[in-house]
UniProtKB/TrEMBL annotation:
<protein>
    <submittedName>
        <fullName>Integrase catalytic domain-containing protein</fullName>
    </submittedName>
</protein>
<dbReference type="GO" id="GO:0015074">
    <property type="term" value="P:DNA integration"/>
</dbReference>
<dbReference type="InterPro" id="IPR012337">
    <property type="entry name" value="RNaseH-like_sf"/>
</dbReference>
<feature type="domain" description="Integrase catalytic">
    <location>
        <begin position="1"/>
        <end position="73"/>
    </location>
</feature>
<dbReference type="GO" id="GO:0003676">
    <property type="term" value="F:nucleic acid binding"/>
</dbReference>
<dbReference type="InterPro" id="IPR001584">
    <property type="entry name" value="Integrase_cat-core"/>
</dbReference>
<dbReference type="InterPro" id="IPR036397">
    <property type="entry name" value="RNaseH_sf"/>
</dbReference>
Amino acid sequence: LLGTEHHPTVPYHHEASGQVERLVKVVIDTFAACVVNTKEEWADHLQLVAFLYNTSFNEATLRTPFLSTAEIQILLAI
């Protein structure tokens, strides 16, 4: 679905679970900032939220998720 890959983790592997939980929190917080009226609007903002996450700078890796996977840096003119 949507070009995603599922990689199951080992039960009770806290490092992997923590990474996923952090991602879920960021995505939920971003949706909360975008969707103000109804929960049904989330689908309208899915591509925007994915783009925002994939182009956000990660201080731990010093890269964006998009740069880490595609080796292409997205530059936005603001």
